[in-house]
Amino acid sequence: MKPRASTLVAAITLASAFAATAQAQTNKLHFGGRVSYHFDAEEAGVGLQLGIPIARHLEFYPSLDNFFVNSGSFLSMNADLKFRVPLETSNWLYIGTGVNLARSSYGNNHNTRTGLNLFAGAESLKGRVHPFGELRFTSNNGNSAQAAVGLNFTMHD
């Protein structure tokens, strides 16, 4: 296994361990898919995310996006904390920050960058299926922006 692939496997394993504990505490674990657009690369992509409650209004929020570049590959992995802004009438708004790892490959050229994320979004929390939209800014050897829309599914016992 390549070093970067082993890092991803370790992150998923760690997230799964936290998920079991968090689900038992809150029963609000979320898993979902997304369609993204990376403004700087001018490419669309698909991805997955996991919402793991760790405290009231706070989630561990790992995500992975694979962008459809013309030649080569472009993968973006995030390990974020998502804070649901407590509003009097609902908790649909969220903001967050975390770490980004972006890897692009074109022929024999490979580039891996790490950086910081800032994001904001809106997600309906009614029922078991939650549509969401999000805007993310990443600073990793330059700044980039990404928009995503998707569906999260509440995982119950």
Count of beta strands: 8
Average the pLDDT over all residues and give the rounded result.
82
Low-confidence stretches: 13-27
Q: What fraction of residues sit in β-strands? A: over 45%
Terminal residue distance = 33 Å
Tell me the number of helical segments per DSSP (H or I, 4 or more residues long): 1
Pattern of helices and strands = HEEEEEEEE
Structure explained in plain terms:
- The protein is an alpha+beta fold and 157 residues long.
- The chain has one helix and eight strands.
- Strand 7 and strand 8 form a beta hairpin.
- The protein is elongated, with a radius of gyration of 16 Å.
- About 10% of the residues have low confidence.
List keywords for this structure.
157 residues, alpha+beta, 1 helix
Short description:
The chain has 157 residues and is an alpha+beta fold. 15% of the residues lie in helices and 62% in strands.
List the helices and strands and how they pair.
Elements: H1 3-26, E1 29-38, E2 43-55, E3 58-67, E4 73-84, E5 93-106, E6 109-123, E7 129-139, E8 143-155
Antiparallel strand pairs: 1-2, 1-8, 2-3, 3-4, 4-5, 5-6, 6-7, 7-8
